[in-house]
Amino acid sequence: MQVTMRSENHVGYVTLSNPPVNAIGQALRQGLLEAVRWAERDRLDRVIVFGAGGVFAAGADAKEFDSPPQVPHLPEVLNAIDESFVPWIAAIEGVALGGGAEIAMACRMRIMAPDARIGLPEVTLGVIPGAGGTARLPRLVGLQKAVEMITMGKPIGAQEARSAGLVHAVEDDPIEAAFMVNSEELGCIVPTWEFHAPAHDPDLFHMARENLKAKMAGQEAPLRALEVIEAGLSLPFHQALTQERQVFLELKTGPQAKALRHIFFAQRAAKAPAHLRGVALEVRHAVVVGGGTMGAGIAYALLAAGLQVTVLEADAAGLQRAEDTIGKLTEASLRRGIIDAAQAADQRRRMTLSTQYSEAASAQLAIEAVFEDMAVKHEILAKLEAVMPADAVLATNTSYLDVNEMAARLMDPTRVIGLHFFAPAHIMKLLEIVQGAQSSDRAISTGYALAKRLGKVPVLAGVCDGFIGNRILARYREAADTVFMDGSTPWDVDEAMVDFGYAMGPYEAQDLSGLDIAHANRQRQAPTRDPNRRYIPIADRMIELGKLGRKTGAGWYRYPGGGGKVEDPIVADLAIEEAHFAGMSRTDYSGPEICRRLLLAMINEAADILDAGIAQSASDIDLVTVFGYGFPRWRGGLMDYADSLGVKAIVAQLEILAREDPVAWKVSPLLRRCAEAGQSLAEARPKL
Ligand code: T1G
């Protein structure tokens, strides 16, 4: 039974129970409708509805979205609650999200626990509230707050909900408080649907529309939600619900909702494989070697997750730099209200800074985060192995270097893994867990457990140059430089990718991280570079010109100060010069053509990565591209997007490009196999 009912002294208690988050599926909707009839039949004084397991309800069961809706539909169920002559009170603990919040808003009264959260995050799944949220919320909290909550999809806390008028009270024990509510008081509250809709405000909607076009460019649901809210204001309540439902059903089966659901479930499926569960080492004390930007960010992420952390540096200056950087991250979290003063003090207490490796003797995990020099990493890992417990895990944060080579030099290579964080390490959710040839199950499992503790999205990667994400990035940049050289500019390339949905293009992104990083990798790879593969020298010219990016005031763009960026004709001329030296004529690529080429280059490389078993699945690659490299989430990730184009079409396009350059555009065998078998990339598995 997903809805249980019991009454005591004419008070009804209705429990929502569909673990783990009381997702609202057909059975729960059916149970709720029966509860309305039960309460009226027994002429109860009130019904108190609450969720089992400390959660009210996480919303409609998104797993049902790919099937035809089944009766009873949630709007009808909620109208029955709203219109019932027995008043319902929602006692909210944990979360009341989406349909959960809509159940609560159909109740006469809402009482929240202090740490509970309530909201309508439907747009994050590419849909809009589909059970009255766009009509009830404006009636309860006014237009401004309703538009903000629905179009941004961000839940709010109990006090904010109380201040906004969404809930009547914040109580430690909402069920008890609901029982104590005075019957007369309760009887005076009219059903939500009888509340007057707020007056239309054209300026508010205009500003909201412009804001959404800027902040959520390309995403359909937020703008449609705004339209539905606006149209609903001039419709009778039940007609507003009908209009809302039509738009919800239309979006639910659309490409963006499917893509966002794909990422939602892929992210939750990103867990340690079954055979690795339960073998992880419990990490209470972690050591980070290297207190630079990455090391300090990793150390801060570990501190924020409650671990004891030792930062090892080579000298006092290094320790001071680490302490200053971590201090700044703490200050920023305090300013944003992410932590309070007591938590900041607790984090500081759990941190030690030292130049002595002996401090690592009691740690269960060490992460080296020094600069990308194999000899230095060998030295550090050897010193750690000498002092740390025999079962401690040794991890490297290297972005590119060979984890197997690092492990091979140690007495016990099975304890070595890669833990590839992404800058800023305390914010970016992706964590590539790099499995060395000899990495033990316990080391890998410890990596997964750490990812869960840090709230990261773990993706298992095999050992190769760049693992999953940076290997795809290298192809993305190579394709961009080729397009630039042959017939474009950095700013046109960036614009093409922003139009696709990236927050920024590859050139602006590289100016942020610094052109010297890619340059160092090109130099490292030079001895093994394929002589038949076309090499674009423009980026090397940039280094020669001292244009390293933001940090030197100029890279692909100029940064004259004040935060803006300026296109630099000198940079555009480099392509013209190099084309002249190469004796080639240039073309003029359109935005869509630029985007097509860069995406195909990434898809082709990702297919090779999957084929080689460096990635375990296409959805893992989707997680890497979305959570580590800014691929637009509402496109579902690189491989899900490729599947939306169709593998056969991709192979056909690559074959045409291969006539231009058979080396750069060599079609991945996995793509050919999938095309021939009529298989999607989501179904593809590594060729064992
Ligand atoms: N549908 C189906 N399964 C869900 C689910 C949902 N809405 N929410 C969570 N799960 C599963 C999840 O896949 C995982 O499964 C388990 O629950 C624990 O989730 C009509 C149309 C509630 C804050 O967008 O934000 O209502 O991996 O790992 O970190 O207008 O889940 O264990 O098999 O995330 O504690 C709107 C989505 C739906 C909220 C809990 N609601 N969920 O976080 O656990 S649309 C949402 C969340 C809607 C109405 C519209 C989070 C959480 P498994 P978890 P968590």
Automatic annotation (TrEMBL):
Molecular function via GO: (3S)-3-hydroxyacyl-CoA dehydrogenase (NAD+) activity; enoyl-CoA hydratase activity; isomerase activity; NAD+ binding
Highest taxon of the lineage: Bacteria
The reaction(s) this protein catalyses: a (3S)-3-hydroxyacyl-CoA + NAD(+) = a 3-oxoacyl-CoA + NADH + H(+)
Xref: Pfam families: 3HCDH, 3HCDH_N, ECH_1
Protein name, as recorded: 3-hydroxyacyl-CoA dehydrogenase, NAD-binding protein
Matching InterPro entries: 3-OHacyl-CoA_DH_NAD-bd, 3HC_DH_C, 6-PGluconate_DH-like_C_sf, ClpP/crotonase-like_dom_sf, Enoyl-CoA_hydra/iso, NAD(P)-bd_dom_sf
Record-level GO BP terms: fatty acid metabolic process; lipid catabolic process
Organism: Planktomarina temperata RCA23
Annotated metabolic or biological route of this protein: Lipid metabolism; fatty acid beta-oxidation
Compartment(s) where it occurs, according to its Swiss-Prot or TrEMBL record: Peroxisome
Keywords recorded for this protein, A-Z: Fatty acid metabolism, Isomerase, Lipid degradation, Lipid metabolism, Lyase, Multifunctional enzyme, NAD, Oxidoreductase, Peroxisome
Main location: other
Annotated ranges, domain 3-hydroxyacyl-CoA dehydrogenase C-terminal: 466-559, 595-679
Domain 3-hydroxyacyl-CoA dehydrogenase NAD binding: 286-461
